[in-house]
Task: inverse folding
């Protein structure tokens, strides 16, 4: 399968004529050849987006009313629902997800478009009380051309929450998917053209991060950058953006804790603790990769976790097991490296999951691993593994739990399990992160719920109305009428 860029509602061959191999993680074989984008391809896409907007927002996309944008997004949501099976299959094979996970991602994508379609014509400014003789108002305007650098773990969902919001707010988008997982996003761009988005409103340029990605971050025509990915690359993107004062939203990784107090409802908590790390084989920015358990119930919680971990199975996407393979060899080696290093340091493996007999030995399969008594300063407790590896550790007091929970460079999400209402809120207010879940974890995704991090987890908010605000520039207009 050979795929080109999608620019101005048409397939575009790569300017340098080069294609890169994208691999099937379930067997290590070449799945597709993707156009290898360079600066020239990015330039074409940015020009197409600029033309769609027009110099004074008078182009075929720029002049549409909020209601017209809303209706197009609603049509795109319907097209995604109609093609959900096809999109899920592409995503499952490309990323190594089980089909049921990819299906859920397709549903979430449709929901993002619905949500932002509904929000597009409710994105209004204010009138402000001011001096006598004045009327002052604010208007929210699009940035212009927005860049969206998308990783491989949830391509459709991340596309939905950034591109959906950016389009609703009236921006024209240039998307650079991950080199490992571009197929669903190329199809989405095609669907957008089919439902009537004007040429240039949505463009997808594939290629490597250091080529197409970097060129996009450096392009002077880009007015806002939304990046989801690693902390390291996020820093490079932010530096490139700073060179030309371009606003940037960074959604980076995490080492998110779940705190289990002795009064928690364990029957409710335990399955969620497992799912929070098994979901997408741990390749989730908000994965609950640390579990802090009050010492009085520590052995009880471990005893409940162990059989559930042992039952977790990894296998080919079509088998719809708990987990598929990891996305690529680099990720596979990274996760194996963390596990091997922890074992070499004498950390205790409490349980291991299984790899299904039908899994190819050439696929990137990693079984779930549960480590107990993990020291707070170890790599396993401090660094993002991005695989199905859970670090469990005990604590004695609430103060210690808060210190441990906040004691990493990251700050994305936290979970609190307790029946004590005062403690729930007290601890939630002390968490240094962007989202806190009490007696649940993730709230089932929640497209309406603002999401993002602090510290090395990034800045800016996606999802909900906050994302829409981020994709607009607030202009104040003061009228002196006497
Ligand atoms: O990420 P990169 P990688 C974390 C996770 C994972 C690690 C490495 O810990 O193990 O990152 O993954 C594009 N300019 N997360 O190497 O490099 C790249 O092409 C512009 C967490 O895959 O950050 C891809 O589209 N763009 C995370 C995207 O950036 C560049 C999701 C992400 O790649 C670029 C994924 C450059 N110089 C990984 N270099 C999350 N927050 O969910 C690369 N890219």
Result:
């Amino acid at each position: 399968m050979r795929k080109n860029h999608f620019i101005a509602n048409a397939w575009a061959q790569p300017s340098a004529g080069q294609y890169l191999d994208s691999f099937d993680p379930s067997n290590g074989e070449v799945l597709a050849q993707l156009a290898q984008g360079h600066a020239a391809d990015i330039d074409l896409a940015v020009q197409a987006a600029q033309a769609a907007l027009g110099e004074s927002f008078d182009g075929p996309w720029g002049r549409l009313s909020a209601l017209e944008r809303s209706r197009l997004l609603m049509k795109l949501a319907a097209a995604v629902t109609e093609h959900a099976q096809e999109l899920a299959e592409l995503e499952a094979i490309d990323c190594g997800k089980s089909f049921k996970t990819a299906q859920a991602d397709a549903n979430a994508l449709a929901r993002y478009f619905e949500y932002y379609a509904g929000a597009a014509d409710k994105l209004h400014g204010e009138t402000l009380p001011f001096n006598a003789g004045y009327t002052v108002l604010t208007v929210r305007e699009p940035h212009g051309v927005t860049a969206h650098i998308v990783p491989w773990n949830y391509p459709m969902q991340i596309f939905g929450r950034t591109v959906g919001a950016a389009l609703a707010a009236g921006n024209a988008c240039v998307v650079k998917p991950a080199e490992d997982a571009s197929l669903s996003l190329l199809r989405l761009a095609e669907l957008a053209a089919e439902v009537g988005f004007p040429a240039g409103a949505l463009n997808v340029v594939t290629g490597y991060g250091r080529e197409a990605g970097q060129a996009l971050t450096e392009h002077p025509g880009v007015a806002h950058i939304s990046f989801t990915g690693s902390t390291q690359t996020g820093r490079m993107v932010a530096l490139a953006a700073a060179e030309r004062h371009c606003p940037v939203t960074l959604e980076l990784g995490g080492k998110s804790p779940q705190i289990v107090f002795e009064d928690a409802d364990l029957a409710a908590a335990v399955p969620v603790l497992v799912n929070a790390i098994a979901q997408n084989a741990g390749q989730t920015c908000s994965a609950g990769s640390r579990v802090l358990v009050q010492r009085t119930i520590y052995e009880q919680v471990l005893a409940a976790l162990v059989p559930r971990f042992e039952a977790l199975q990894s296998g080919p996407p079509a088998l719809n097991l708990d987990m598929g393979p990891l996305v690529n060899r680099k990720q596979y080696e990274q996760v194996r490296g963390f596990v091997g290093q922890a074992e070499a340091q004498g950390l205790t493996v409490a349980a291991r999951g299984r790899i299904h007999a039908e899994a190819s030995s050439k696929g990137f399969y990693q079984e779930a691993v549960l480590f107990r008594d993990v020291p707070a300063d170890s790599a396993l407790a401090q660094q993002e593994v991005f695989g199905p590896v859970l670090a469990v550790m005990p604590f004695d007091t609430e103060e210690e739990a808060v210190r441990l929970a906040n004691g990493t460079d990251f700050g994305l999400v936290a979970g609190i399990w307790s029946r004590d209402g005062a403690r729930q809120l007290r601890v939630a207010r002390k968490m240094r992160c962007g989202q806190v879940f009490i007696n649940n974890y993730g709230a089932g995704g929640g497209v309406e719920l603002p999401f993002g991090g602090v510290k090395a987890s990034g800045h800016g908010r996606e999802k909900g109305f906050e994302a829409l605000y981020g994709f607009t520039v607030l202009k104040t207009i003061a009228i002196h009428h006497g």
